[in-house]
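Key idea: predict the complex, not the pieces.
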Amino acid sequence: MDYFELECAVEEWAKDKGIFEKATPMAQALKTLEETTELCTAINSDDRAEIKDAMGDIMVTLIIQAKMQKLSLEECLESAYHVIAKRKGKMINGQFVKEESLPEGLRAGDGVPDDYRMD
Ligand SMILES: [Mg+2]
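Result:
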């Protein structure tokens, strides 16, 4: 199956299980949070199988949420990409921090390296 077929299959599965009838967007968002916590746990224990499982589960929860919100994940991703494509920032403690969220003194032109550790 290609990605689109998989997304449709997940939507069909959710429909068959009555998820669209009974679940609420907030309950669904909490499922995404639960699966994201499982991803953090899997990363923390360096468990490749669990990382794969958690990432797939996160995608399932997001596909269902998108359908509930009458959006497609593709349009959400496209919209996010257009925003981040122009974004400036720095790597701090292993995480990209957008320029407007950087602490004063760490912005572009402040002579701080692009990969900075703040301990
Ligand atoms: Mg899971």
